[in-house]
Amino acid sequence: MSSVGSGTRISNSKAPVLQGLLPIDRSRIGPDVLAGLTLAAVGIPQAMGYAKIIGVPVTLGLYTLLLPLVAFALFGASRHLVVAADSATAAMVASALITAQAPADSPRYIALTGLVALVAAGLLLVARLFRLGFLADFLSRTVLVGFLTGVGLQVAVSQLHGVLGIAKGGEGIFGPLKFSWEHLGDVQPASVGISAAVLVLVFGVLHFFPRFPALLLAVLGAITASAAFGWGAKGVELVGAVPSGLPRLGLPNVSWGDMAGVFEVAFSCCVVILAQSAATARVYAARYGEEDDPNGDLVGLCLANAAAGLGGTFVVNGSPTQTATVDAAGGRSQLAQLTTAASLLVILFFFTGPLSYLPEAALASVVFYIGLKLIKIGPLADIFRKSPAEFWVALLTAATVVAVGVRQGILLALVLSLLQHVRRGYRPPTAVVLHDPVRHWRMDAAEPGRMIEPGMVMYWFGGSLYYANVSHFARESRLLVYDSPAPVRWFVLEASAIPSIDYSAGQTLRELQQNLAASGVVFAIVFASPSLRADLDREGVTEEVGAGHVFNTARECLDAYRAAELGG
Fold first, then answer.
1. N or C: which end of the chain has fewer CB within 10 A?
2. CB atoms within 10 A of CB 346
3. 413 vs 148, 166, 266, 398, 406, CA distance in Å?
4. In this predicted model, what pLDDT tens digit does every residue of 526-558 receive, in sequence order?
5. pTM for the full model?
6. Closest CA to 150 of 168, 129, 172
7. Are the beta carbons of 32 and 310 closer than 8 angstroms?
8. Which fold has domain 430-567?
9. Which residues neighbour 310 within 8 Å (Cβ) at sequence distance 6 or greater?
10. What residue ranges do the domains of the chain occupy?
């Protein structure tokens, strides 16, 4: 068997399954198994926390580390991506379904969360059939940082009642804050003490031992103390009985009409799954010299969510934090994730009894910690230093999540990302090419009077020419010719950065050629790629300009210009 390691490029694109597992390097079986056990230690408390975010029994959170994890491990393309419960999608489902559709933790509510997973699976299947994995590239890191920050604030605030031991009240983010303030007199000292102990333990341990499963230690400590001191009998609210065994497979008990009610949130989850999973898988594929296959991962993500819906649990997503956990522990293939699933099987059959002693305050503190970790203060500060304009985009996204809702936040994030892309394409960089005594050529600001040779302007346009930016191109081109203090005899388009043109751009190029020709100015094109040359031919630009004025290199163009000047 071939080994797998840093610098080894892997391609299993022809295999429909086991792309993330094969080939197996025998020397890495031990590290992969150890990484899987580490993921179980870290992921089990988190999965229970995500179940609390979404408003379903903790057992359903544990189920996300079973069938969905195995489905992606067998059918996904990435060797590293961990697909399980995720705080962002959990918060989105909760904000859409709680109260609006059904009371949390009710049978109908649980059925609807399963339906969201199935609809999301269907949308992911459509995305795979149409090879839409590239759409993940249109959700920028800037807006993702803002989105996750807003989600983190919502998640943290939503657990204040559990941390303080008071009743739950208020909606959104400001409602719970106001409700908690008004009911400070009802705070339970025991709940506050348990919450404080959990948070101090987690932050303290992770400060000195960043890779230690601090959440698991805190949960085990809380369970042990609760059982030893009989906290349940003393008024401390506990998680209660946790069913053992495997999840029951089957379709959720819903109607066809319910699909319309959950479509919006399922679509929003699909957008997050596409963006977050693809970005995470891409990072680790690049790190280990492997091929990135977002469309292959869509198969695994689709089946993982289908397994979640049929297994009675909720939507799952590619998790950056859990993927980083496996990587830091030495995992290099989906064997680690299969080990995690096997570990959970043991817990579900033999160790669900102790989970019933877990205090609700301890679980709320785990979720509160997860929310705090999602608040991206460091990345926001970095964006502010390097790109203030993008910082405000991230902040607007976070504010939308906080003030309006998680689903609206991700849709705004998608729109803002697309607008950022359009804005860059709408006003791409431009320059004129000049001689340089050392480097032969250099770029300078596109201003009238700057010529590569007396009488010749060589204009560089840094992006595709299409209907939205072609008027800017034409306006600047005419400015360089007609506002020049010295006469311009040749205007040359340096097209090395133009991959394509559309119909509108083709018509504008023909009109520019006609206008320049009427003024006695030659229009020429240099560095047209084969694909651009095909577009120029199709749109009639080559015929209008003249094939003799389309050059492969700047040197050819300059020689032709000098010859024309001498001939003239």
1. C
2. 10
3. 11, 34, 16, 9, 10
4. 999 999 999 999 999 999 999 999 999 999 999
5. 0.76
6. 172
7. no
8. Transcription Regulator spoIIAA (3.30.750)
9. 67, 114, 118, 249, 250, 251
10. 27-422, 430-567
